[in-house]
Amino acid sequence: MNILGISCFYHDSAACLLRDGKITAAASEERFTRIKHDFGFPKRAVDYVLREGGITIDQVDAVGFYDKPFVKFERILQTYLAVAPRGISSFIKAIPLWIKEKLWMREIIRKELGYKGELLFSDHHLSHAASTFLMSPYDEAAILTVDGVGEWTTTAKGIGKGNDIQLTHEIKFPHSLGLIYSAFTGYVGFKVNSGEYKLMGLAPYGEPTFYDTIMNELIEVKEDGSFRLNMRYFSYTYGLEMVNTKFEKLFGVPAREPESKPEKIHFDIARSIQQVTDEVMLRLARSLRKETGQKYLCLAGGVALNCVANGLILRESGFEDLYIQPAAGDAGGALGVAKLLYHTMMGHPRNGAEKMPYFGPSYSDAEIKRVLDAFGAVYHRLDRDQIVNKTAELIADQNVVGWFQGRMEFGPRALGSRSILADPRKPEMRDTVNLKIKFRESFRPFAPTVLAEHVSDWFEIDRESPYMLLVAQVRKERQTIPAVTHVDGSARIQTIARDDNPLYYDVIKAFGDRTGVPVIINTSFNVRGEPIVCSPDHAYLCFMRTNMDHLIAGPFWMDKQEQPPLKDDADWRKHLILD
Description:
DHBP synthase; 19 helices; alpha/beta; 579 residues
């Protein structure tokens, strides 16, 4: 049985194909269109997952969409009516799009896919819940989903048992932990819906001097984690901005201009809202542990990508362990609705925990070679052992290496298939990668990948973190990896077991054998403002347009010093994988 899941039209569109309940392929539309957080219909992602599955749309048994557009439209209309006449300009911009497209979702999906079969719509937070619980190793678990907003719900608590998911408590729009975090993201000068991780990275540089201000004026939080926002300070219910002038007066400074240099007050504001987020998430988790008596917690929704809060929940909530699948945001809704259809609605047994996240495209050696030849690239072909040893040698010699191997990851993190790799032992490597390769803010931290069997030797954590979704402290006696140690002594950890990704594991092991440090820098293979690379042409272009030293794509090793200048004409495009 083939089930196709789709998410789109808000942000991070994606498609997922299940065959007999197991993931065949999953990918975000942005990776193909090169439009970051692309919200359009995921036509290319759908084409890819069907192609990967070796089927046509006529062989799909059911299609699921990750939320309910009519319920969302109801919320938008009721919100505009509640705040009228404020919001008229926002209303005029939003409603034509709804009338033209979003209310006709069923017809649009059928037309875009050429599909005539069964089509079902799921509640947004139920899709989130399914994306984590039905992918988890647990037969029973508590479930917590937290994001900006679905239809009405912004936070949901519940429980999963076997195939069944019951969401028992919810907090509704406009009261939203995701939206208040996004409001501060915009206020501190980053882009809403994409810069939240920057706010999280900025926070350790500050002090929580505005924690009491936020808790006293902006949000009322009860002991069980339920909360209400003081909407006098926010304008997202009626305007095109997240906050109003009252918000700015509360903190005494106007919103930071994008690209301007952050000042101490911005660090302090970031730290304060992060601490509030930590507190709310911890209270929600503790109350859920008490209410359900469950030993395990499954997390999903955009706020579940806040790895600082996740680490706190793991340490202090009382749950023995937690599971977060790597595409925890809206892209993962495509996976969630497909799983929900197959296991919960159709009643098929669960498959057990599936290995994540390598469900994207891969490219044959011949395809990679064709692309490199089209560019006129100079390359050396290596066997597997040579790839492992050469990569470890290059990193140990302070080179920055583009790493393009196997199937692309599903979710926002590069986890060893589309990565940029570097040596964590020298503090200057952070600035080198940030400023010369990624072209991004110097305060942004880098994540380490560590061999799973050595994670407790280097970090204050006693379990694996395969999806880079937990933060833990670097052990004080391990001060030899400054390039992945944030200003507060923490790191956003990825563990790698050999079964997860043998080639990537072997590279890190070879680096560890050479240096005594089984840890490397792993950052996503892209530059600021662009999605992670998907195909060989994306990888070579990113390599050539940055100060990256080497690229290893499949079996082919390229030294930047040997490469000809990029061609100015477009003749090479006809040889490439994508337009």
